[in-house]
Amino acid sequence: MPFHSTIISSGSYLPEKILTNNDLTKIVDTSDEWIFQRSGIKQRHIAADNQSTSDMAVKAAQKALESAGISANEIDGIIVATTTPDQTFPSVAVKVQAELGVPVGIAFDIQAVCTGFVYALATADNFIKAGQLKRVLVIGAEKMSSVLDWSDRTTCVLFGDGAGAVILEANDSSDTNDRAGVLSTHLYADGNMRDLLYTSGGVSTTGDSGHIIMQGREVFKNAVNLMAAAVNAALDENNLTADDIDWLVPHQANLRIIESTAKKLSMPMERVVVTVQNHGNTSAASIPLAFDEAMQAGKIKKGELVLFEALGGGLTWGSALVRV
Ligand code: UT7
Questions:
Q1: Is residue 117 within 6 Å of ligand 1 at its C-beta?
Q2: How far is it, in rounded angstroms, from Cα 54 to Cα 132?
Q3: Which CATH architecture has domain 181-323?
Q4: Residue ranges matching CATH 3.40.47.10 in the chain
Q5: Which of 63, 121, 127, 132 is the most exposed place for a label (fewest CB within 10 A)?
Q6: Atom 16 of ligand 1: nearest residue by CA position
Q7: Looking at 21, 45, 114, 186, which residue is catalytic?
Q8: Is it the case that residue 110 has pLDDT exceeding 60?
Q9: Per residue in 126-176, pLDDT tens?
Q10: What value, to the nearest 5°, has the Cα angle with vertex 72 and ends 5 and 319?
Q11: Which of 4, 251, 254, 278 is catalytic?
Q12: Beta bridge pairs of residue 250
């Protein structure tokens, strides 16, 4: 029997500690005006020293399970998108599995930086279509504060910590009329642009995680063009126009990037979910955080068409079209 995957619930978690733009002026030479005007960010959440990426992932996953009304026993796959794992190994996914009491199954991490959640969603969708998994926890979780150089004002003001999760479930595909679920995914990477955004260290080079280094203007330019291209690929494949899309849920890196991409697609900002002001750039966690917030607020309604788009280090980028 052919299967397709449906998002049956979502959940998210933000750490308690809030760092405002004004707080940052005590750490680096910056201002609330500069940060807000250039990025749209007002504040970000910062994990406690003893709080790891898996701790946040577990909290988001628990909320998604509660919201779906299912128990951990009914999950057979966990895919965590993260670029800030607790340890080099084992994966965050197996820690989430043990913590939640998910039975033996498939669990692994995906590293595609800020595009990680779209990569993870596409991977889970393909496992489901292949008939290999039935109910998958797809999580984006990051402790970006641990890879920031807190003396570099060009990067430390932009990022934050958090986690978001969705549960994907296999459904019979025989009825294809306006069915809910993942309709398409488009993933891309171009390693020739790896030096635009990277960390200064790594396990097999310096032996530590290093800090984020970014050529902001170059990343900005590529983000607008490449995310619009990924969105157009989704629209073309599904014979849709931007008018058909109810909600754009973009990666939350910079309000100006979000606005420029929406403009390129002629999408009014009223149909774009924006949460970057509250949590900054949370990398792989940003799309599921924004999606969950819009679901909880009752903005996104059952049956609506939602388009995810992201771009991150690599460069990696992609889109996913979902009817919720
Ligand atoms: O999630 C992965 C994808 N990442 C992104 O999408 C980020 C993409 N890039 C961006 O969002 C923007 O390029 C930034 C927000 C990072 C920077 O905005 P910008 O308008 O491109 O500014 P800029 O880098 O061109 O810097 C303008 C000025 C510079 O001063 P000079 O050289 O003009 O004198 C910077 O030194 O702003 C200065 N500056 C700051 N000033 C106050 C840089 N950071 C700060 C700061 N506070 N925090």
A1: no
A2: 25
A3: 3-Layer(aba) Sandwich (3.40)
A4: 3-172, 181-323
A5: 132
A6: 216
A7: 114
A8: yes
A9: 999 999 999 999 999 999 999 999 999 999 999 999 999 999 999 987 765
A10: 30
A11: 251
A12: 309
Nearest Cα neighbor of 309 from 324, 283, 287 is 287
Is any atom of ligand 1 closer than 6 Å to the C-beta of 257?
yes
Out of 3.40.47.10, 1.10.3810.10, 3.30.413.10, 3.40.50.280, which CATH number does the structure's domain 3-172 have?
Answer: 3.40.47.10
Is 211 one of the catalytic residues? no
Q: Residue holding tokens 């190994």?
A: 89
* Under 8 Å between Cβ of 224 and 258: no
Is 216 a pocket residue for ligand 1 (Cβ < 6 Å)?
yes
Q: Considering the entire predicted model, what is its pTM? A: 0.97
Whether residue 83 has its Cβ less than 6 Å from ligand 1: no
Closest C-alpha residue for ligand 1 atom 2: 312
Active site residue 171: no
Please give the average per-residue pLDDT across 14-18, as a whole number.
98
Asked about 251 being catalytic, the answer comes back as yes
Q: List, in order, residues 6 or more apart from 322 with CB less than 8 Å away.
A: 7, 181, 182, 183, 305, 306, 307, 308
